[in-house]
Structures are given as C-alpha cells and as structure tokens.
Amino acid sequence: MTSENALGGFLRARRELIKPEDVGIATGGRRRVPGLRREELAMLAGISTDYYLRLEQGRDRNPSDQIISSLAGALMLDEEAAEYLRALAVSPPPRRRVRRRPGRVPVGIDQLVRLHLDMPSFVHDRYMNVISANSLAEALSPCYRVGTNVLRTTFLNPEVRELYEDWERTAHSLVASVRALASPDLDDPQLAELVGDLSIRSEDFRRLWARHDVRARTSGTAHLLHPQVGPVSLNFQKLEITGTDRQIIVIYHVPPGSDAAERLALLANMAATTRQLAPVPAGSPTDRQPG
C-alpha cells in the first residue's frame, strides 16, 4: 500500500461502488465494469473525461477545491469521506519515513482504565494495538487484551467471528475507522506492514480495505454472543487522547439494572475469580517466605 496514487485509488474504488441507477443513469444490457464508468463520473462531476482520467491515473495531483467538491458530490460522499478526499488531494511535502516507536499511555489515563473495573475499557494506538486495558475488557473479547492488535485479531482469530452477532458489519466498521485514523499518512511503514500482512492472510480484509470506506465511529452499540454470559449489547464511546499520537480510549457502558448490566456484572465476577486463582510469579513479594 502506498500513497503515491492514493487519490486515484480512492476515486476508482468509490466509483466502482456506485450503481448507475442510483444516480439516474440508464443502463442498457450488460456492463463490463462494476459501478460507474469514468466518463459517467466525469459527466456527473462536470469535468472532462480526460481530466478525470489524469486524476485517477495520478498524472494530475493538484485538483482545485471546487473540483474535489464536485467529485465528492458525484460520488455521494458523506462529510467525513469528503474531508478524507480533500486530504488525499493535498500533496504532502517530501519527508523521510520514520518508523514510530510504540507510544506510552499517559499515566492518568492508564490508571483510569485499569482501576475502572465495572465497565470494559481499553486504549489502542493509531495502528489498533491495545496498549492498556482493564480485566473486564480482556474478558469481554480476545481483541482487547494488552499486546494484541484489534484489526489483526478481528480478521484472523476464529473466536472473534463467533463472538459478534454481525461480524461482517463489525469488521467493515473497523476497517473504515483504521483509514480514518491513518488519514492522510497512508504510506506509514507500520500501517503498510499491517495492511500488507492482512491482505495476504485474509480475503475478507482485502475485500473491505479495497472499498476505501472512511468512518471514525465515536459511538455505537456492539452486539456480542459471549461464550460465558450469553448475548449482551453494549454501548461504547471512543475519545481521542489529547497530547498523544492518535491514541483512542474506548469505554463500554450499559444502562443500570438492565439485562446487559447483569451479564456484565457476572463476567466481571468471573474475571475477578480468574485473577485470584492465577499463579503468583516466583520471586514476587507474596511468594517470598517471611524472614
């Protein structure tokens, strides 16, 4: 994956997702290409086919804001996707790519997450690596264990497919949020490595990534079929942590007294019991004999 022609890749992917009948174009017989033809999109955007072709092929990388707005309208993009398109259209200054070091969670945020035991909470970085989590989050899903990558685990761990009531929708949303976090730095070495590996190992990921969907969901509801406590629906909030390299804190919550609250409390008790039964590492203070 590279941002050398990220604009063209985005335009092509979004063009192929639009059905001609959705934009009032009559089709006669079979079409050899999915979605809109280049000349059809150019007509809808009010630009020449030749100029649109140059944009898609990466031979013109400085479209005006007016043209970008016209293309966003023709592609029926929402506000977030339109902003993403504008970011791709801005040519970044050449710079040396540096592999980012793993970021540390601010101490206060880490304590908040780990001590807030009645609701699942965790923090991930811009690459979806989990860098802080409480025990309830880790008990809720294999995705939320510290040291794992949410994106990788979602697509490669069979347990996760069974966990979500609608795995396809969850995976689709996750991929779209990764693009939003990465924007517009799509040739980041760590992101390229992650996307490249998943594209090889997961056909589902490759298909969803190729759609170029962009959406940073800040709230919503997750419907889980947990193997220990059964079906449970959890609301969630996502907040970007200021002063960090796009670290996100995710907090799940449920209405007090609800069936979901009871199931979550049961899971919390099970997680606490597991912690109490866990063996104490040799050499730890509780393992030493009194002198």
Model description:
- This protein is α+β, with helices and mostly antiparallel strands and 291 residues long.
- It is built from 13 helices and five strands.
- The chain has a five-stranded antiparallel sheet with strand order 2-1-5-4-3.
Topology (SSEs and partners):
Layout: H1 6-17, H2 38-45, H3 49-56, H4 65-74, H5 79-89, H6 107-115, E1 121-124, E2 130-133, H7 135-140, H8 150-156, H9 158-163, H10 167-182, H11 189-201, H12 203-209, E3 219-226, E4 230-240, E5 248-253, H13 259-277
Helix pairs in contact: 2-3, 2-4, 4-5, 11-12
Alpha carbon gap, first and last residue:
60 Å
Major sheet details: 5 strands, antiparallel
Pick out the low-confidence regions.
284-291
- What percentage of amino acids are in beta strands? 5-15%
Strand adjacency order, main sheet: 2-1-5-4-3
Structural class: alpha+beta
Shape field: elongated
Task: List the secondary-structure elements in sequence, H or E.
Answer: HHHHHHEEHHHHHHEEEH
Count of DSSP strands: 5
The whole-number mean of residue pLDDT values reads 87
Percent of residues in helical segments?
40-55%
What is the count of DSSP helices, taking H or I runs of 4+ residues?
A: 13
Summarize the structure.
With about 290 residues, the chain is of the alpha+beta class.
Key features of this structure:
disordered C terminus, elongated, alpha+beta, 291 residues
